[in-house]
């Protein structure tokens, strides 16, 4: 049985994951949401104006009323900058699984922030919400995301061949997952 809690603030060593605020708009535009390369990595459009970002934020913020809605602004503690986003989506209440997605501005890559954020969401997903399975995917060629997934100890499940048509060619989608028992056993081994 899932225990939906909504998007709660999560504190990690270097990050705060919290619900989005309207005041995040400038950081979003500056650091990631207007960057076509970042947005294309997880098949999202770019947002280039404050009005477009405000409209998206309205969608996010109004959805926080639902306890089964999970979308976090990723805030770097040191600078208090919104450096990206992380979400639990494709929530399957009947079969107790979900999928996660994440995106960080390129200035914040290769600092371990993505894996730190994903690990905290795994902990939240399994220990608080009680998901049985968390899945994640990346596009073929997204080596950085693949590295995050491996660092977080997901298990490769398979490839959906030619899933996306981008820039005139087909691109595969690679899927990974983690089961709650695997996560708990890993936590016990690390103690």
Structure in a nutshell:
With 191 residues, the protein is of the alpha+beta class. The protein has a single domain, classed as Gcn5-related N-acetyltransferase (GNAT) (Aminopeptidase). It is 34% helix and 33% strand.
Q: In the residues, how many domains can be counted?
A: 1
Low-confidence stretches: none
- In the CATH hierarchy, the third-tier topology is known as Aminopeptidase
Separate helix tally: 6
Determine the mean pLDDT: 95
How does CATH name the architecture? 3-Layer(aba) Sandwich
Shape: globular
Terminal CA distance reads: 27 Å
Cα Rg: 16 Å
Domain N-acetyltransferase: 15-181
EC number: 2.3.1.267
Protein name: Ribosomal-protein-alanine N-acetyltransferase
Keywords: Acyltransferase, Transferase
């Amino acid at each position: 049985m899932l225990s939906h809690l909504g998007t709660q603030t999560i504190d990690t060593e270097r990050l705060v994951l919290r619900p989005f605020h309207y005041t995040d708009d400038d950081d979003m535009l500056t650091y990631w949401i207007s960057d076509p390369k970042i947005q294309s990595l997880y098949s999202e459009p770019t947002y280039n104006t404050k009005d477009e970002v405000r409209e998206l934020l309205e969608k996010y913020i109004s959805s926080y009323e639902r306890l089964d809605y999970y979308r976090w602004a990723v805030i770097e503690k040191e600078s208090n900058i919104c450096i990206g986003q992380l979400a639990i989506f494709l929530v399957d209440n009947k079969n107790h699984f979900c999928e996660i997605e994440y995106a960080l501005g390129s200035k914040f890559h290769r600092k371990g922030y993505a894996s730190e954020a994903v690990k905290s969401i795994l902990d939240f997903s399994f220990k608080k919400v009680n998901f049985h399975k968390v899945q994640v995917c990346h596009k073929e060629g997204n080596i950085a995301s693949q590295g995050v997934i491996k660092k977080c100890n997901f298990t490769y499940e398979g490839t959906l061949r030619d899933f996306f048509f981008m820039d005139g060619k087909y691109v595969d989608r690679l899927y990974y997952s983690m089961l709650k028992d695997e996560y708990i056993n890993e936590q016990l081994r690390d103690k």
